[in-house]
Design a protein that fits this description.
With 480 residues, the protein is an alpha+beta fold. The chain folds into 2 domains: 279 residues, 3-Layer(aba) Sandwich (Aminopeptidase); 152 residues, Alpha-Beta Plaits (2-Layer Sandwich). The chain is 36% helix and 22% strand. The strands form 4 sheets. Strands 1, 2, 3, 6, 7, 8, 15 and 16 form an 8-stranded mixed β-sheet that branches. A 4-stranded antiparallel β-sheet has the order 11-13-9-14, with helices on one face. Strands 4-5-17 form a 3-stranded antiparallel β-sheet. A hairpin with a 3-residue loop joins strand 1 and strand 2. Helix 2 runs antiparallel to helix 6. The longest helix is centred in the first third of the chain and has 23 residues. The chain is globular.
Length: 480
């Protein structure tokens, strides 16, 4: 027994030594850069965003419900507001409303860069419109916020890009490398006519960019668990999505004589099983990279866990699983979004349907999702129907490539002592369509803790908006 305890003590000391060694050698991946001088901006840029918000460039699920006059009016506004951009750059329209702007650089030998944003916005639900503090398409300013649909998603970025470009042109600037602006018009309904078509054009034209930058990550003061420092999360990959419809038919009847199994009961059981048996959680290489960047900046015990994921993986996963965003980072998620059954209170329905949306980890296919559902529900009477082709992105940007470091440095120039980390974007972006021409696709919106995204009171702080202009200005000006 004494020998066993002695061996156990030695093992414990070795283990402790390894853990402490890895913790103390867990070095910061942050790059120290000097803050850049803040560019001088008057409030005309704010007025321009207000005006942009007033155009109801809404994407609806129905393809024929687009209000073309709003998109035409918005583009006329852009041409009038940014005369140098639209006179000195090559402008191309794709499928009537998507835009490609080409700013020719000094060197034809260096790779171009692509900056993206989208013109369209999601609708505002009638039932929630009364809950807005300002009319959702007014661009009203309240308490130093600009309110309106698109303030964050994504006219804020689009206008910030154009403001910075117009300013650079006023200063006589010519970029070293060619810069493309890609402004799709249907991102909110999957970008099929906009970004997807444009990506195919770029592929056919053999355009090979150094990197693509689209919307996605943000600057946050509080959303990274365990880290009380300002952090910028830059998307290096994004989750896919798959949607399945589950359908079952069992003859119904009068509610006074229910059979042991009914369609609605069996479907409800299946949904509960899916909820209680989620996909396995995992610390993917993308998540591991994220932890490697934030871990050295955390308090000692959190830093110790991040430095020794081989030992503390279960604790890390348990911590992340406690929040919706954290849980979505470490697994393919399952969400029942539609349930249909029954037409009368005393009639047992003979059919039940449920629509389930899955947001998948990179590399998880539609067949993987179907296999998971089959195994979990274990009910051959339930038919599993594919809804659309889905999306299974595999692209992951290389953080050791100079393009990531360049974006990291640019972020450091606009915010003192900011932590920058690569991460997995939980939603879909137009950027995914460009994976055939480069793997270096990044997703980052240079605004701090956006509010009202796709919801009530979408708004952006005036100071954040101006800081975003500063970011794009430096990104274009300093790129060699």
């Amino acid at each position: 027994m004494k020998k066993f305890l002695k061996v156990l003590g030695i093992v414990f000391l070795i283990l402790t030594g390894v853990v402490l060694f890895r913790t103390f050698t867990f070095k910061s991946k942050q790059i120290k850069v000097q803050l850049a001088p803040i560019i001088s901006l008057n409030d005309s840029c704010v007025v321009h965003l207000q005006k942009a918000i007033r155009f109801k460039t809404i994407s609806y699920d129905g393809a024929n419900t687009i209000d073309t006059s709003q998109f035409k009016g918005f583009q006329d506004f852009l041409i009038k507001t940014y005369p140098l951009v639209f006179s000195k750059m090559d402008v191309e329209k794709v499928n009537d409303f998507s835009l490609i702007l080409r700013w020719k650089g000094k060197s034809a030998k260096t790779k171009p860069i692509i900056l993206m944003a989208h013109q369209d916005v999601v609708p505002v639900e009638k039932v929630t419109e009364k809950n807005w503090d300002a009319a959702p398409f007014s661009g009203t300013i309240k308490n130093n916020f600009i309110y309106g649909r698109g303030a964050i998603d994504d006219k804020g970025s689009l206008i910030a890009i154009l403001e910075s470009a117009e300013l650079l042109l006023q200063q006589g600037f010519i970029p070293s490398s060619t810069i493309y602006f890609v402004f799709g018009h249907d991102e909110e309904i999957s970008g099929l006519k906009g970004a997807k078509t444009i990506a195919k054009l770029f592929e056919a034209r053999k355009i090979k960019p150094a990197f693509v930058l689209d919307e996605g990550g943000i600057i946050t003061e509080y959303k990274v668990p365990g880290l009380n420092k300002t952090t910028a999360v830059v998307g290096i990959a994004e989750k896919g999505y798959q949607t399945l419809k589950l359908k079952i038919n069992i003859p119904g009847g009068h509610s006074s004589m229910p059979e042991e199994k009914t369609a609605i009961d069996e479907m409800a059981k299946a949904i509960v099983k899916l909820k209680e048996n989620p996909f396995q959680s995992e610390l993917t290489p993308i998540v591991q990279n994220f932890l490697a960047f934030i871990g050295p900046e955390m308090p000692f015990f959190s830093k110790m866990a991040m430095a020794n994921q081989w030992l503390f993986a279960s604790i890390i996963k348990s911590s992340y699983a406690k929040s919706g965003a954290g849980n979505a980072t470490i697994r393919t998620t399952t969400a029942t979004t539609i349930f249909n059954s029954g037409i009368k209170e005393n009639l047992i329905p003979g059919e039940a349907e449920a629509t389930i949306n899955f947001r998948t980890q990179p590399g998880v296919t539609q067949q993987d999702v179907i296999n998971h559902v089959k195994n979990v529900i274990d009910n051959d009477k339930i038919e599993i129907i594919k809804v659309g082709e889905g999306n299974s992105p595999k692209q992951v940007a290389d953080i050791d490539d100079g393009s990531f470091e360049y974006i990291q440095k640019t972020i450091g120039k606009i915010k003192k002592d900011i932590i920058v980390a690569p991460y997995l974007v939980l939603g879909a972006t137009d950027g995914r369509y460009f994976d055939k021409i480069t793997s270096q696709i990044f997703r980052f919106t240079p605004f701090t803790d956006p509010e009202g995204f796709h919801g009530v009171n979408e708004r952006i702080k005036i100071a954040d908006f101006k800081n975003g202009i500063n970011f794009y200005y430096l990104l274009m000006k300093d790129y060699q």
